[in-house]
Specification:
The protein has 12 helices and 11 strands. With 296 residues, the protein is α/β, with parallel strands linked by helices. The relative contact order is 0.11.
């Protein structure tokens, strides 16, 4: 009996010593809340596709116990519980999973209920390239993988540079309109999508003062007459049917970059696949017909 007690005491002392030696990770999320973690979380719920992809990028996909309804990459996530979306998060279902970390958008008001129940909710914003870099690093630190974020960002930058090198010279400086969700929203100059387009040598028709993802009057786009239009394939197939849009330069010339749903969703997610998204954009630009005389 005495030997057992001594062994138990030794084990407890060893655990205590390890706990005292563990580094406390302190982060502040984009809602202004400070989080102190003495150990990496083991049960994670992600309520935003881009954050889900960041968890996977950090090598912590096995720790995910639930995700939002739109998280569809990588395919290995298919069997996880689906817990609603930005405005209709299933609070009871999330609580039942007993997560020790919930990752969510800063704009999700539903997360306040989870916080009130005592759950750790880290709320993040990713509207620009800088936001994505910072969020990648923060998620990596939270998960006990501090090198994962910087490593992913270096890869993203390398992939964007490679994509930019493949853009035809004839399209450098061309004006572009990137439509979000079939309109009337667009990716503005200051958004992560707009910044990628700029890296590819395109000029956004949406000025930075309108914000990252502004709601536009359709007449604004008609007047701007962009030379390239990008968006979901299902929406671009109907552009000529919109009043006045048949006269837009991109529609006349056939300079349309339409993407199927999986690739379009990747393009509008501020996550670790930004570089792959840039490559898809470059692929489409390479396939566009050559400019007609006087069209630029």
């Amino acid at each position: 009996m005495r030997r057992r007690l001594v062994a138990l005491l030794a084990t407890l002392l060893a655990l205590a010593a390890g706990s005292l030696g563990a580094e406390i990770v302190v982060v502040r999320d984009d809602a202004g809340t400070e989080h102190r973690l003495s150990a990496p979380p083991q049960r994670i719920v992600s309520m935003l596709p881009s954050l889900t992809e960041m968890v996977w990028e950090a090598g912590a996909g096995a720790r995910l116990v639930g995700v939002d309804r739109y998280s569809d990459w990588p395919p290995q996530l298919a069997g996880l519980p689906r817990l609603g979306g930005l405005d209709d998060a299933q609070i009871e279902a999330i609580a039942a999973l007993a997560p020790d970390l919930v990752l969510a958008s800063v704009s999700s008001r539903a997360m306040e209920r989870l916080q009130a129940l005592g759950f750790r909710v880290v709320r993040l914003r990713s509207e620009t390239h800088e936001d994505v870099r910072r969020t990648l690093e923060l998620v990596g630190r939270l998960l006990g993988q501090p090198d994962a974020g910087p490593r992913a960002w270096v890869r993203v930058q390398r992939e964007i540079e490679a994509a930019a090198a493949r853009v035809p010279a004839s399209l450098r400086g061309a004006s572009v309109y990137f439509e979000i969700g079939g309109g009337p929203y667009a990716a503005g100059t200051s958004s992560f999508v707009g910044q990628t387009l700029a890296r590819l040598g395109l000029v956004n028709v949406v000025p930075p003062e309108l914000g990252p993802f502004p709601k536009l009057n359709p007449e604004f786009v008609v007047r701007a007459s962009p030379q390239v239009v990008m968006g979901a394939q299902r929406d671009l197939e109907k552009l000529a049917q919109r009043p006045g849009w048949g006269g837009i330069a991109a529609v006349r010339q056939g300079w349309l970059c339409g993407f199927d749903s999986p690739h379009y969703e990747m393009l509008i997610r501020p996550g670790p696949r930004l570089g792959e998204a840039a490559s898809r954009l470059a692929d489409c630009l390479q396939r566009l017909p050559r400019p007609q005389a006087g069209s630029r």
